[in-house]
């Protein structure tokens, strides 16, 4: 993954109690493995929620909706969660993608970009209420100011659902390990 939004969740009291019980019953390594399995399942759930709630529908959507309209679903299909890491009661994992434009929409972008020379196909454009035919032509190399607002589709999903989803999935994994199912 080239770009990602990170998640760090500390265990709450109920998960901490289950984890301590598991440590006593099964040992530290099995407890941590179960914790990570739950975090991994939670990361996958969050990816699904981001795809469903924030990366669907024909846009453009207002920036305040924190949604990104899609045409090809390339970004949505490439969204993945990284393998979780556990350190001192804290689980860290990331959700990201290898699609280059994700960073511009998640974190915002304001800079000049270079546009290489290219050909423009003939097309029809609406100009002052009239249809105007634009003939095929070539565009020279040029710079363009890009100003993409910060939409945060993934970070919004993490803020909205992260604690609940991760807590439920980690607790499920720990209970499953305790009950040996």
SSE diagram, text form:
Layout: E1 3-10, H1 13-26, H2 28-54, H3 74-78, E2 80-81, E3 85-87, E4 90-97, H4 102-107, E5 109-115, E6 118-120, E7 123-127, E8 130-134, E9 137-139, E10 142-148, H5 153-179
Antiparallel strand pairs: 1-4, 2-4, 3-4, 5-10, 6-9, 7-8
Summarize the structure.
By secondary structure, the chain is of the alpha+beta class.
User: For the report, how would you describe the main beta sheet?
Assistant: 4 strands, antiparallel
Terminal Cα span:
33 Å
Shape: elongated
Judged by helices, strands and strand pairing, the structural class is alpha+beta
As a percent range, the share of helical residues equals 40-55%
Report the C-alpha radius of gyration, rounded.
Answer: 23 Å
Proportion of beta-strand residues:
25-35%
Number of beta strands: 10
Kindly describe this structure.
This protein is an alpha+beta fold. Helix content is 44%, strand content 28%. The strands form four sheets. Strands 1, 2, 3 and 4 form a four-stranded antiparallel β-sheet that branches. It is elongated, with a radius of gyration of 23 Å. The model has no long low-confidence stretch (mean pLDDT 84).
List keywords for this structure.
about 180 residues, alpha+beta, 4-stranded antiparallel β-sheet, two-stranded antiparallel ribbon, 5 helices, elongated
